[in-house]
Amino acid sequence: MNATEYAIIVAGGKGTRIKSKLPKQFLELSGLPILMHTLQAFYRYSSSIKIILVLPQDDFETWEALCKKYNFTQPVILQKGGESRFQSVKNGLDKIEGGGLVAIHDGVRPLVSEDIIGASFRLAAVHQCAVASVRLKDSIRMTDQDTTKAMDRSKFRLIQTPQTFQVDLIKKAYEVKEDPNFTDDASVAEFSGHRISLFEGSYENIKITTPEDLVVAEALMAK
Ligand SMILES: Nc1ccn([C@@H]2O[C@H](COP(=O)(O)OP(=O)(O)OP(=O)(O)O)[C@@H](O)[C@H]2O)c(=O)n1
Ligand SMILES: C[C@](O)(CO)[C@H](O)COP(=O)(O)O
Question: Domain of life of the organism in this record (predicted)?
């Protein structure tokens, strides 16, 4: 029997770097809020996936209003966000009762494909964990105040989401005390001693972080 598949879509952030009044997850891209594109990608992958949507509690009403406005009826389990991404993921994990696999994904990566989501679940079923990543296209240098040093870029990867794990493994890992070095879920799992398996993500799976990302995402969606 296949494992139950969950997705935690974290959209509990404030979007300070994009400098928009409306939280960036609600900004419209190609006629639909960013977050709805993201949720649709997961439902395109599987209509039976159980989705936990993490939002700031103050934004629940805004979300309900947007669902009405855009006639968005796909079911989600709502959960309140926390002060940090770590806390938001932890709250999302609290909503999972059984075992299975969980894909943790940024609500503001709306260009994730069904293929990437599918690969993350397939690989996590084998390796317990699967993290999307891409190779560097640019050269990379390490800086140390006055000096810089060329590095071998083939040794580095840029890390994306989804980051998919066995539920029990990632729940246990998130029992740790929060640390500023935990920038993603892989770093939390690694701290608990787990080996992190990477797979090929996509250059199109961008995170909407700063204003120019909106222009790029709009262009990619129009392709
Ligand atoms: N307290 C938080 C902070 C972040 N996130 C989510 O984590 C993802 C990646 O975070 P980031 O892009 O940094 O989003 P923000 O924190 O909203 O942006 P900024 O850092 O610019 O304020 C986003 O989908 C964001 O909503 C979250 O669920 N809860
Ligand atoms: C989880 C993440 O998207 C992987 O690239 C990233 O680490 C989030 O970082 P941010 O500082 O919250 O933008």
Answer: Bacteria
pTM value is 0.98
Which ligand has its closest atom nearest to the C-alpha of 26? 1
CATH of the domain at 122: 3.90.550.10
| CA atoms of 5 and 132, how far apart (whole Å) | 17
149-169 confidence digits (pLDDT tens): 999 999 999 999 999 999 999
Quote the ligand 1 centre to 23 CA distance (angstroms).
10
* Upper half-sphere CA count for residue 187 (Cβ side, 13 Å): 13
Domain range for 109:
5-221
How far does residue 219's CA lie from ligand 1's centre (Å)?
Answer: 23
How many Å lie between the centroid of ligand 1 and the Cα of residue 84?
A: 7
Q: What is the DSSP-derived secondary structure letter of residue 21? A: S
What torsion do the CA atoms of 167, 168, 172, 174 make, to the nearest 10 degrees? 0
Q: How far is the CA of 161 from the centre of ligand 2 (A)?
A: 8
**Residues whose CB is less than 8 angstroms from the CB of residue 165 and which lie 6 or more positions away in sequence, other chains included:** 101, 102, 104, 124, 128, 129, 173, 185, 189
For residues 125-134, average pLDDT: 98
3-state secondary structure of 144: strand
- Domains contained in the chain, number: 1
Atom of ligand 2 nearest to the CA of 109: 3
Q: Is 59 in the pocket of ligand 2 (CB under 6 A)?
A: no
**How much is the pLDDT for 219?**
97
Taking the CA of 106 as reference, the closest ligand is 1
**Smallest-distance ligand from the CA of 86:** 1
